[in-house]
Write a structure and sequence with these properties.
The chain starts with 9 loop residues before the first helix and ends with a strand. 30% of the residues are buried. It is mainly β. It has four helices and 24 strands.
């Protein structure tokens, strides 16, 4: 079905069908959304349903969509929405995943199932012509009164498709007031006296048959946090990426705040990037915790002249300067920074602890800094942009215990020119 052929008034008719009664929130506040081209226009809470009115606007072919190649980032399987065409081919294919759920943020047990949709398919793809607008409606189970913020989670990404996920949707949904109790006592009828009948022999109580276990929906946990400038402590726009079930997933946040649905059975490695900052990474294994909500704030160091930035995951063979493969991910992040900022020049600095021969430590630290420099050059970074220096044990971070002194064995880089 090609939505370009739909009458222009069809969407408006749909939006007027379900306005009989209920709590209505026009243009609700949405804290974060995974795509810019789908908007929530209205949320209506009837006695039976949560009704969400949405609008899809097909990006024009001559404009490159901001999220064109970004995959989906939701916790449910087999997503197919929408598959972007190559530039110049003015069609996308859309549908609404029937596994979509509504959740109360941080309380994953409070979920509300999808029931049906209008003006959008849920089992097959539908083509949408370049520049077209599609108004559609999704019905879910009724939000519990008192829940005035919820998340809309669609299907998991696959094959380059993009989910429609909305986080922090604010609606009017106050708690229902209890009906006032009548103060008048109600007289109870006195039953007529009866001659007691002979009591039958008591039977042993029978244990009721156990009820069948309810079928579980796809379980999910939530990771949320804010990405900050490490110097000013102010939130910054950034991109968070990770891999789940073989899919590389990404989410961009213009406010610095992010919220991600994660599978408790997966192990995650998150990478956080922002233009003008040195990226960071962290790991998460939801199964290691009994909770279903995780908080992780991230602090990124700005790329400014004179700034010293630690390379936290650089490893060498014991007492040697040979890089171990575990170092490559961190070094590749530095390569990306150098490529994205072609005018940046750096000085790689090697450091050791102060145990052992002073001169040997000084030479080892210089060789390790040279190893990092050589790796960057092999990846295509010009040698003129990289200086290497070793300081041995002359610049310790700590003089505490043996465990603390391990921090002195490190590799850093300093931005010398931009």
């Amino acid at each position: 079905m090609n939505f370009k052929l739909l009458p222009a008034s069809f969407g408006a008719i749909l939006l007027s069908i379900h306005t009989s009664f209920g709590q209505v929130t026009e243009n609700p506040k949405v804290e974060e959304s995974s795509v810019p081209y789908v908007k929530i226009k209205k949320v209506e809470l009837t006695d039976a349903n949560t009704v969400i009115y949405l609008q899809f606007i097909e990006p024009k072919a001559q404009k490159q969509p901001q999220f064109r190649s970004q995959p989906r980032m939701s916790p449910f399987p087999d997503s197919r929405v929408p598959q972007f065409p190559q530039q110049g081919i003015g069609q996308s294919q859309i549908w609404l995943d029937p596994e979509t759920r509504l959740y109360k943020p941080g309380e994953i047990d409070k979920k509300f199932k999808f029931i049906r949709a209008e003006n959008i398919t849920t089992t097959t793809k539908t083509s949408v012509a370049n520049g077209d607008t599609v108004d559609f409606v999704a019905y879910f189970e009724r939000l519990t009164p008192g829940i005035e913020e919820f998340d809309f989670y669609e299907g998991r990404s696959s094959n380059g498709s993009q989910s429609w996920n909305f986080y922090g949707i604010h609606v009017k949904n106050p708690l229902k007031k209890e009906p006032a109790k009548s103060g008048k006592p109600v007289a109870k009828a006195t039953p007529p006296a009866k001659k007691p009948a002979a009591q039958p022999a008591a039977k042993a109580p029978q244990k009721p048959a156990p009820a069948p276990a309810p079928k579980k929906d796809a379980e999910m946990a939530v990771l949320k946090g804010t990405i900050y400038n490490a110097k000013t402590k102010e939130p910054i726009a950034a991109q968070l990426s990770y891999t789940e079930s073989g899919d590389t997933l990404q989410i961009r946040s213009s406010s610095g705040k992010y919220r991600v649905g994660v599978d408790p059975g997966e192990r995650y490695k998150f990478r956080v990037l922002a233009r003008g900052y040195y990226g960071s990474s962290f790991s998460l294994t939801p199964a290691d915790s009994t909770g279903k909500s995780f908080d992780q704030d991230v602090y990124l160091t700005p790329l400014i002249v004179g700034e010293t930035i630690l390379l936290p995951n650089i490893y060498f063979e014991m007492s040697k300067y040979t890089l171990l493969p575990e170092s490559y991910e961190e070094l590749n992040r530095l390569v990306d920074v150098m490529r994205d900022s072609p005018t940046v020049k750096i000085r790689v600095e090697g450091h050791t602890d102060n145990v052992g021969d002073f001169d040997k430590n000084l030479e080892l630290s210089r060789q390790r800094a040279e190893s990092v420099k050589n790796y960057l050059i092999e990846k295509g970074i010009e040698s003129s942009r990289i200086e290497a220096k070793g300081y041995g044990g002359t610049r310790p971070l700590t003089k505490g215990s043996e465990e603390e002194r391990k921090k002195n064995r490190r590799v850093e880089f300093v931005i010398t020119e931009m």
